[in-house]
Amino acid sequence: MMESKTELPTVRKRVGLGEIIFSIPTLLILAAFFLILGVIVYYGAPVISWNFLTGTPGFTMLYGEPFGPNFLYSEPFNLQILPYGGILPMIFGTLALVSGAIGIAVPLGVLSAVYLNEYLKEGLFKSFINQVIGNLAGVPSIVFGIFAFTFFSKQLDFGVSLLSGWFVLGFMALPIIIKSTEEALKAIPRGFREASLALGATKWETITSVVLPVATPGISTGIILGIGRIAGETAAILFAASIFYQSSLYPTNVFQPVMALTYHLYYEATSSPFAGINRPYEFGTALVLLGIVLLFSIIAIYIRTKSQKKRKGW
Amino acid sequence: MVTVLNKFMMSNNRENKIGKEKEKKRTSRDVKIETKNLNLWFSKNHVLKNINLKISDKKVTAIIGPSGCGKTTLIRSFNRMVDLDGARVEGEVLLDGENIYNYGTNVVALREKIGMVFQKPNPFPMSIYDNVAYGPRIHRVSDDTNLDKVVEESLRHAALWGEVEDRLNANAYELSGGQQQRLCIARALAINPDVLLMDEPCSALDPIATAKIEDLIWELKEKIAVIIVTHNMQQAARVSQFTAFMYLGELIEYDKTKKIFETPKEERTKDYVTGKFG
Amino acid sequence: MDLIGRLRKVFRNLPVDVLTRPAPSVDVLQLRGKEYLRRFFSPEGFTGVCALSSFIITILILFFLIQQSLPILQEMGYGQYALPLLSGLGYGDYAWILNNGNIVTGLINFVTGSTWYPKYLSFGILPLIAGTLVVVGGAMLIAVPIGIFSAIHLSEYCPLKIKNIIKPIIELLAGIPSVVYGFVGLIFLVPWLAGVFSLRSGQTALAGSIILSIMILPTIVTISEDAISAVPKEYKEASLALGATHFQTVWKVLLPAAISGITASIILAVGRALGETMAVLMVCGGVANMPPLSLQMFFTSVKPMTAAIAAEMGETAVGSVHYSALFGVGLVLFGITYLVNFIADLINSRFKKKFGRAR
């Protein structure tokens, strides 16, 4: 195979100064990524065990006052509580939150994008709606959090609950899904729709039989990106949905609060009775959270590259 | 869930067809499509100016003219595809005597009667079978065996059956350009239209594929009216019985093909067919 | 034609069933009353209502933010010292008697007040705004140069195969949850900074800036890289054909051509940085003092707006003055991000007009 190749004189590419200088920032970014990833894997991996992933959390007092009626009102400075055990309820909680939120965001988002792209004409109203969606995408997550608390928990009286979490996370994922569905729909050449309409299909039939099936990879990418985003969301559920520990470990009804991985990690790492006591436990939680989120991101990227290759045929 | 949604929202009035009179025997002396003082605007652009045209049934009519003269817009106005482009229409277009631009026209049923083939082959990203079956499925042809028959017939009419009969489930993009275009023709024929509109169907194809499609058109004229827009004058001369020459949105001359090419009445027609401008 | 015949013709042309008839074109025909109704009860109307949902959500958020922050704005209409005075005199619980102040002056006092000390009912958010500005400003100072140069590298210097591996990795970086960033920052960056700069505590604005810059880098890099790659290669070829080096071409031709995309990425990054909560909460220290106006500002502990809300809301009684003040901070945040978004849209649309395409 090699022997029959003609030997051409090769020109060696000189590595210019530009290349070296410009590659430094990229290397810095890559370094940051691998450092963060590495540190979490390094400290978190030893903690991961079957028990950790499937067990339930427990807490023991290290020293300080025992649990009693005055426990919450006294401020024992030497109180320390050691968390241990597993994080299965938190994994369940995060998954429960995500599923419900996606269940709200996907129908609403896909249909909105269908309207914006297929039915609405270009004009003032369309650019206004696009601006509104872009704005919604940029609203800080903590603002969503306090909104969720005052609207879902207080006004609608859902309380601190899974249901509130579904709505607020669904609203946060909505712009992502709308944008990626719109991109997917825009990428479909006009010819398909025209051919379908010329065959006597109505607009809605064209959308459901031709346009949406073809747009499915793009929409799926958007959904998975949305999942990744809301699985890692803390501030939004801080007040309206999450709880650090509750005795009923798995959400049995939607009006109960839910234990989520993100909130658990935050509270663990920063709240005084627990902070810093069981760092490995925290690293384990961080690793599981990171793993779940990165998994979804990787799936999304994979779907996207695969469908881009297929698209070359058009 | 989509089918439930569909049933809820889909229009059902396909029975309200245009031209409800009893099935007459169609002869080639019938006027299939007639335009009366058809004027069309795209915003301020007056694209079609006072077109008066009578297209005969079971004949091939070619529409020729230089780029931008409105040929494509004209045939797109026959099956109301200009609605997608945001056109304003005045005047009438009669299909079998009924104005299709009336308020209340069932556009979906209209497009069942008129098929269209586009310039660039645009098969759906589905299998060959699904592409051809798309139209019949939408118009709810009853069952699978019937569907198989319809697909096979359409592919035969499009002179494609022999080449694909063993790979009906292959993706449509595996076919060559010419085959894809014939697939689009088969797809259009599958809904059993009375008229076939073809917008420069061969411009993206090589000469061999073009020849095959021209043969196809020649056969099709026995059953349906074919209206073909083409840049290629030799093609128009080969394939059509009637030719319309358009220039800058106006219908300059419309007559038997032989007359247009050999003894045209108008000066501009003569200039165009002799190649003085293109 | 006789009357019967004419009537028959009219009836034949009547719409058979208004609600289920398929849509005739409405560009060609005039819209009549029934048309709107029919369009509403069709797939178009149904999906249209869905599309309105984003608008409705935004309005809801705005409404509740305003509703809950009205008390503090009204109370501060009497000046930024009215509440602290009341509290100092021991009548802090009666803050509601100030509920008829002017909202606009209240808002101005709220935003310009330089003391944030909820315990004594002092709710000036200037320190919080300053904290946000310091952290975000520092993050931009770090991220923008690195991001732009990295984008240049990826689009111009990097071999394609390697680029196709690096780009997804950078996207993954964007996907990491902010708590994880905060966590890593808290455990590693903060002590390290304390060591390097000999500080008592490493929880400073600098820590926040560094972490935040890593979080916004993917935004800057991916969008800028797209912008640079989108420059027509004719520009590049023309420059090289004139004898310019690659470096000169990049600097003098490509960058200016891609400037609007790069600006868009920067503005988007600013928007993201302003809204970031958990990471800055965990590493910035949470001391709501005005940072000094010197380089020292990066080495002080600050409390950005987002962190203030997140940290204090948990211990605040619902409906109290503090609660309302935190909603006021949320309202200001909403307003700032809306402004940033608006500016970004403006730039985008101006560019569309100039060049006929976005960015």
Q: Look up the CATH topology of the domain at 126-313 in chain C.
A: MetI-like fold
Summarize the main sheet of chain A: 2 strands, antiparallel
Cα gyration radius of chain C (Å):
28 Å
Q: In angstroms, what separates the terminal alpha carbons of chain A? A: 34 Å
Please, what is the average pLDDT of chain A?
A: 85
Q: List low-pLDDT spans of chain C.
A: 14-30
Low-confidence stretches of chain A: 73-77
Q: Span between N and C termini of chain C?
A: 64 Å
The CATH topology of chain A = MetI-like fold
What would you say the CATH architecture of chain A is? Orthogonal Bundle
Q: What strand line-up does the widest sheet of chain C have?
A: 1-2
What is the number of beta strands of chain A? 2
Number of domains of chain A: 1
Which architecture of the domain at 126-313 in chain C does the CATH hierarchy give at level 2?
Orthogonal Bundle
**SSE string of chain A:** HHEEHHHHHHHH
Helical run tally of chain A = 10
Instruction: Estimate the helix proportion of chain A, in percent.
Output: 55-70%
The secondary structure category of chain C is: mainly alpha
Any overview of this molecule?
Chain A has 314 residues and is mainly α. Chain A contains ten helices and two strands. Chain A has helices at 17-44, 50-54, 88-119, 124-138, 141-155, 162-186, 190-198, 203-231, 261-270, 279-311; strands spanning 57-63, 80-85. A two-stranded antiparallel sheet of chain A has the order 1-2. In chain A, helix 5 packs across helix 6 and helix 8 runs antiparallel to helix 10. Chain A is globular and about 75 Å long. The two termini of chain A are 34 Å apart. Chain B has a single domain (27-273), classed as P-loop containing nucleotide triphosphate hydrolases (Rossmann fold). Chain B contains eleven helices and ten strands. Chain B has a six-stranded mixed β-sheet, with helices on both faces. A four-stranded antiparallel β-sheet of chain B has the order 2-1-4-5, with helices on one face. In chain B, strand 4 and strand 5 (98-99) form a beta hairpin. In chain B, helix 4 packs across helix 5, helix 5 crosses helix 7 (177-189) and helix 7 packs parallel to helix 8. Among the domains of chain C are: 64-123, no CATH class; 126-313, MetI-like fold (Orthogonal Bundle). Helix content of chain C is 69%, strand content 1%. Chain C has 15 helices and two strands. Chain C has helices spanning 3-13, 33-40, 43-75, 82-88, 103-112, 126-157, 160-175, 178-196, 205-229, 233-241, 246-257, 259-275, 278-283, 305-313, 321-355; strands spanning 116-117, 122-123. Chain C has a two-stranded antiparallel sheet. In chain C, strand 1 (116-117) and strand 2 (122-123) form a beta hairpin. In chain C, helix 7 crosses helix 9 (205-229) and helix 8 packs across helix 9 (205-229). The termini of chain C are far apart. Residues 14-30 of chain C have low confidence and may be disordered. Classes of the chains: A mainly alpha (314), B alpha/beta (278), C mainly alpha (359). At the A-C interface, helix 1, helix 3, helix 4, helix 5 and helix 6 of A face helix 3, helix 6, helix 7, helix 8 and helix 9 of C.
